[in-house]
Amino acid sequence: MPSWIRALSVALPLSAVAALAAAAPAxxxxxxxxxxxxxxxxxxxxxxxxxHLALNAGFFWGSVRTFGQIGPRGxxxxxxxxxxxxxxxxxxxAYQPQLEVMFRLExxxxxxxxxxxxxxxxxxxxxxxxxxxxxSYLVGxxxxxxxxxxxxxxTYTYSFLRRQRFExxxxxxxxxxxxxxxxxxxxxxxTADYSEAGPFATLAGDGTWLIDRHWSFNARxxxxxxxxxxxxxxxxxxxxxxxxxWKRNFALGAGYDYTRRELDALHSxxxxxxxxxxxxxxxxxRVSY
Length: 289
Fold this sequence. Notes:
CATH topology: Lipocalin
CATH class: Mainly Beta
Shape: elongated
Distance between the termini: 82 Å
Strand order of the largest sheet: 1-3-4-7-8-9-10-11-12-13
Number of domains: 1
């Protein structure tokens, strides 16, 4: 057989095999190797610095001290200066559940919303005379009283310093306050009522220190003293806590609160002032994302 025929008989089968290999479909993506790609970057440790939505639900063991002096318009006769827990018989305890919500907008903007609803009733027999509003109550007269303070706070802060382990922010708070104090005698029609409601603003600052992967220290403070027309108000609010992040979305916290709230109505009827100091520890569960 001529040599050119033998060469052709070998070349034709090899060409057919090469054509079939070129026409064969590519292997599925599941067989593509990723050995050369870098591993994904690890997530930063979960903390109040990385939370974008958080709900703090807990319980507050508060102690209350209430100072008041309520008289008729113009202060004639002047109202009797009193400590409500001693004179009016209202409780000095503020044991109640607490709820707080935090929203983070992008990375540096935070909005916090919390509430206070403190309602107390008391009864006592007066050991000395009491001028409350336009009513005069005598020594030995039984009285019943009611003190309510309701407040919703909306606070915005911008984090001018934000690192993996530290965050510091400053901003402004808006507080919607409603206060009412009432004293009445069950043995007579004597009743005196003092109530005020309105918004109030404060300057705010807060910070977080991530101590390690699980522990963080958090603190905040708000303060402002304002006089608008015949009304004067002052609000001071401080809070600090330690949090333990036992799961990525769950933390346990223990903290302490100090709050002083004062509301003065100089020319209303009745006129006077009402001041609350609330202090105490709180425990809470934080659910965050």
